[in-house]
Each structure stands twice: as C-alpha cells, then as structure tokens.
Design brief:
Length: 467
C-alpha cells in the first residue's frame, strides 16, 4: 500500500468570530499563505497549497459537544490558538483525532496567554517558578514525556524513566509497543521582540502593553502565571495573596463557619474566626456527621463560642447539624438580606440587587478581601487531625494556601440578567475552573459574611455595600 500524499491541518479557535474578526486568523493568514501560493476556499476559511492536495482549515468548538463533529476524522496537524479557552475534554478528544496515514508524523501545537485558572498551568508546572510565577528560562524548549493512565497524567524527563517508574502501566502492552505509548511535549516562552513584523510595523504596540495596569501588564507582557484580571473578576489578585499576611486589628467576637462534605463527597472545611481573622482551619478528607459535630463542639468549648455563632451550610449534611444542635442555617439560595443604611437622621432599609444570599455574601467577602480587612492563618491548620499546611489533590501534594487562592479566583461575576440583578458564576462553572473540585474553602469563607449582611445582626445599622 502506498503512502497517501496529502497533508491536512486545522487551526482551532473557541468561537468563529475570533477567526473572522478584523485582524483575526483569517485576515492575518492572507499575506502569509498567499506568498506560499495558497488558494482560498469556502468563504476564506480554507486554504489549499500546491500541489493543492494539502489543505488548512480554520474551525471552532464553541460548545463542548462540537468536538464530536470531528468523529471519524484524521488530522495530521492540529493547532489550538489560545488553548486555555478550550475545555480539557475538547483538547483530549482532539488528541485522539491527531492521526495520519500520510507522510507526516501527527503533531499538535498550541498557543496561549498565561491563565492561572486553566489546566494548562498545571500541565506546564515544571516550567513555572512556584515563587515568582514566571517561566524558568533554563527550561525553555526542554522536552518532557508523559502518558495518561486512568485520567491521571504521568510525567517524566525521559521515556526510559517513565517505563521504569510505572512498570504496571505498561505491563499489559506488548514490549515492542510500549515506547510508542509515550508522548512528548515542551513549552516555549514567547517574547514580544521575537515578533519582528509587528514591532517593525507597529512599535507603539509595546507602549499599549506598558500602559496597562500593573496586573494586566504582568500577565500579558511579563508572562506571570499567577494573574488573571478581567471584567469578570470580583477580586484584586494582590489582595488575595495578602490575606495570609495582612495585619488587622483583632476585635472581640468569635465565629465558626462550616461547609460539611456533601453526602460524604469533597472536603469538610471548618474555620474558626476571631472577628475577621481565621485563627484555625480544620479539614477532613473523609468524615461522618458525628466527626463534624464533635469537631465543632471542641472548637466551641476551646474558644467559648455559643451555638448561635456557628454557621453551617444546610446543603448536603448541614441540615442535620442545624436541626439537632441549633446552629445557624445558611441557605445560599435564599433571597438577599435587607441592608440598613444611616442616611443623616434617617435609617433606611432596602434589599440589595443580588440574585440570592450567596451572591450577596461573596460580593461582601471580596470587598473585605480587596480592602485588606481579613486574614487567614498559615500556621494553625489541621488535616484529618494532623498539623500540616499541605493536602493531597489527585496525585499532587499542594499547599492549602494555594488551593484557597485558586478557589477564590474561581468566583466570577456573571452578566447581569434582564432585571439587572448581580450574579456570580454557577458551582459547575467554578468546579470546571478547579478541575471539578468543589470550592469548599471559598464557600466556608463566604459564610462568615452572613452576619455582616444579616438584617437581624447587631451591627447591621452601620453596614452598606459599595459596589
């Protein structure tokens, strides 16, 4: 059988407008591919190259289900433009379409801007300095190898090390085929000065990037992988980092907030507060309702906290704690609380324009965080009754403070509905950012804001949310 002499490739953007907008992929490709003798096909979303058996197509996958439009295809070369905008399922499915019977070995390329909430950051973590969040220059272009086993990516520096490290993974395959199961990948940092065409024709573009605020400039110009600030952000990225170092006045008044493991899933997180300072964090990876109750009762006794100062999420197992021990019931789906504001000599009461109580409390939480009025201990943290500041997430051991920061960044503003109510993104959207973990720490922090917006609270007459 002779080798098929055609070659095809597809460049993907998440949405079609990103391809056809002024100055997008379609426009930019014209002078480049015309120089190579390419012909335009199908409204300029295809190019054919001499001898016109080789073709390029621009395509999209706006919805996750769109990936199935590629069933039965074989694409020797796949290019993802802004790969952080695609879901992990889309990327993995397209990898399965990256096959060929032509003269070119299949391969994939992808470009992106830094995005701390994407799976790309985790995948290229070896290239990112965990202290500065910038790319480690010495690892630029360094090739690594990986294999996916039961949903987990196993990485190593050489193919031989992978074979030696995980013999059970390869044992079920013929020995002469094992080496072909391993894929390679590398990361290449792009510098704006490498785009000589752009710098020659529009040298002022660099000035445009320099004119961005500090956060956006650090992300888009300096390639900081810990920053993503956009119009959906409720938070200031520096403020989230500062919650572990803020110096605030420790006023009297203790509270406990608890997000029980929902039907045994996820983490159970308990936080003990002294005013706005989290003085203790308790985490259970596996727990019964009795474990949660006993833990809360121990902290009540140690800190002298009454049941009326314990707030428990009613969703899942929380209702059992509330009904039996008179803790405060937090129902995030409830209507937002009315806020009393002192207006000269008049005390007015009105309801903030939020979709629900949970949204109201998250807006309040981020106001407190951005104003550096809260702090979280880094030292008094227990996981399954052991003192530690780390926890296992999948196959990786992660600092708890890094998990908290990522969870807080997963909370986003949503577009206003027709009645102009304020929303946040859904739990499923938050979990998608977090790799399908629940934002247990963020929810536990958020519940502390309930007394601050509670219309029956003692200090409510001086509270007013400025959005």
């Amino acid at each position: 059988m002779t080798t098929i002499d055609w070659f095809g490739w597809v460049i993907f953007r998440r949405k079609t407008p990103m391809i056809v907008w002024e100055g997008g992929l379609r426009d930019t490709s014209v002078p480049i591919y015309s120089w190579l003798g390419a012909r335009a096909k199908q409204s300029s979303l295809q190019r054919q190259f001499p001898p016109y058996k080789n073709k390029l197509k621009f395509s999209h996958m706006e919805y996750e289900k769109d990936m199935f439009n590629r069933q039965g295809t074989q694409i020797p070369f796949i290019w993802f433009d802004e790969v952080t905008q695609f879901t992990e399922k889309q990327f993995r499915y397209l990898v399965s379409r990256n096959r060929s019977v032509c003269w070119v070995k299949p391969y994939i390329r992808a470009t992106c801007n830094p995005d701390p909430d994407s799976r790309v950051k985790e995948f290229i973590s070896r290239w990112i300095d965990p202290e500065t969040w910038y790319i480690i220059k010495e690892r630029d272009w360094v090739v690594r190898y990986f294999i996916r086993e039961q949903g987990e990516v196993l990485r190593w520096d050489t193919k031989e090390e992978l074979l030696e490290k995980y013999p059970s993974v390869f044992a079920k395959y013929p020995e002469d085929k094992r080496i072909h199961l391993i894929k390679s990948f590398t990361f290449i940092e792009w510098d704006i000065f490498e785009n000589k065409e752009l710098m020659d024709k529009d040298p002022a573009y660099l000035a445009n990037l320099m004119a961005l605020d500090e956060q956006e400039r650090s992300q888009l110009l300096d390639w900081n992988w810990n920053i993503k600030q956009d119009d959906t952000s409720l938070w200031d990225y520096k403020a989230i980092g500062d919650i572990f170092t803020n110096k605030i006045g420790l006023q009297e008044g203790y509270w406990i907030t608890c997000d029980p493991a929902r039907f045994g899933d996820n983490l159970c997180v308990i936080m003990v507060w002294k005013w706005m300072h989290v003085v203790k964090v308790i985490i259970y990876t596996k727990s019964s309702i009795e474990d949660i109750y006993m833990s809360i009762e121990r902290e009540k006794e140690d800190y002298g906290i009454g049941s009326s100062k314990v707030i428990v999420d009613e969703w899942g197992l929380g209702w059992w704690l509330i009904d039996r021990w008179w803790y405060i019931w937090f129902n995030g789906w409830a209507a937002p609380e009315k806020i009393k504001q002192k207006d000269r000599n008049t005390l007015k009461s009105f309801r903030e324009n939020y979709i629900n109580l949970k949204t109201q409390c998250f807006y309040k939480l981020f106001k407190v965080i951005n104003e550096r009025k809260t702090t979280i201990t880094k030292h008094n943290v227990r996981v399954d009754d052991k003192q530690t500041d780390e926890i296992k997430v999948g196959s990786k051991t992660v600092k708890i403070r890094d998990i908290i920061k990522k969870e807080l960044r997963s909370i986003k503003k949503k577009r206003r509905s027709e009645d102009a109510k304020l929303w946040i993104n859904s739990k499923d959207e938050q979990k998608a950012i977090l790799g399908w973990r629940s934002p247990d720490f963020a929810d536990t922090l958020m519940m502390r804001m309930y007394p601050e917006v509670w219309s029956k609270g003692p200090s409510v007459d001086i509270l007013y949310l400025e959005l």
